[in-house]
Amino acid sequence: MLIALGISFFLSATGVYFRDLGHFMGHIVTVLLFTSPVFFSLERMPKIMQKAMIVNPIAYLLENARFVMVYNKSPEWLLLGLYTVISLLFTKLVVISENSKRFCRRNLKLWNSN
Q1: Does residue 107 surpass a pLDDT of 60?
Q2: Which of 21, 22, 52, 87 has a 20 to 30 A CA-CA distance from 31?
Q3: What is the mean pLDDT of residues 98-108?
Q4: Domain that holds residue 8
């Protein structure tokens, strides 16, 4: 859930400068859905495709959820913790800290121009 928050902060930060980003998000979400292991397990894919699919940020979380719910196994806590720390750092350092002052200036300019 934290990675989704980080991605949404990044997209909202980018959307301030690129207004057409919202039009492409529907297509991007559709591609992420069909390239993530929602409908299939990564174990059933060839090894080359498994390496390519794990780049998808949703794939790892879905595989861990499948292990817990379907196979009744415990998740990989160390990797989930690492995933959480990376998403928090991405959210804080890249998105919020770097762009907060620019958001205020940009929004004030837009508001005053109307």
Answers
A1: no
A2: 87
A3: 59
A4: 2-113
